[in-house]
Amino acid sequence: MLAAMRVLLVEDEPPIADTVAYALREDGFDVDHCLTAGAALAATGPYDLAILDVGLPDLGGFALCRELRRNGDLPVIFLTAHAAEAERVLGFELGADDYVTKPFSPRELVARVRAVLRRAQGAAPATHVNGFEHDAEGHRIRWRGQWLDLTRYEYGLLAALIQRPGAVLSRSQLMDRVWGDALESGDRTVDTHVKTLRAKLHAVDPTADPIRTHRGLGYSIAS
After folding, report:
1. Which DSSP string do the residues of 180-212 spell out, in sequence order?
2. Looking at the predicted structure, is the pLDDT value of residue 2 above 70?
3. What was the pLDDT predicted at 123?
4. 12 touches 56 (CB < 8 A)
5. Distance from C-alpha of 130 to C-alpha of 199, rounded to nearest angstrom
6. Per-residue pLDDT tens for 100-135?
7. β-pairing, 49-53 with 6-10?
8. Radius of gyration over alpha carbons of the chain, in Å?
9. H-run or E-run covering 41
10. How far apart are CA 154 and CA 149, in angstroms?
11. Residue predicted with more confidence, 121 or 22
């Protein structure tokens, strides 16, 4: 199974930190939370990305960013309670990859984390999982050597499962990742798209059924 990407979260408000950490872990990230800059500097890395609150009690988020980047170019997203232009400009001048003002949607923050990581990694190599080849840059998936003709949501659903081989993703997790804020959609939407996906996969290889149903839990693809 692929190793989870590690995120360092430095936020001194526990309710906000708990919500953010939960959303990130639900999306497959490994999260280390620190209440202070001092704890963050003592944390055991390396990390793939840091989320830093600007208003920390011991050392500001901007200063912490400078310290963390002494050992490498770490992608950083700043969290702040202030929307002042001068503060945002300073953050970007320090090399911030993104800037999120409180209050914010945890789902949106997770999407921003993934966007920053994609930019930091550049063109990602194709992922090969159990007969699938996922070309993330080209937004296409090959199964048993044949490119699949997928709709936007079919692609998103299959890509989400391939991204975490062996993991069981619930309908609500898949809804968040693939359908986002499409409020008119419901859990049955996931089931319908799984059915059409299975039909397209069977058309390529009638003997295989790579999408597994876990009753009462969700769906997975074997690793």
Report:
1. TT-TT--HHHHHHHHHHHHHHHHHH-TT---EE
2. no
3. 47
4. yes
5. 18
6. 888 888 888 998 898 888 877 664 555 678 888 888
7. parallel
8. 19
9. helix 37-42
10. 9
11. 22
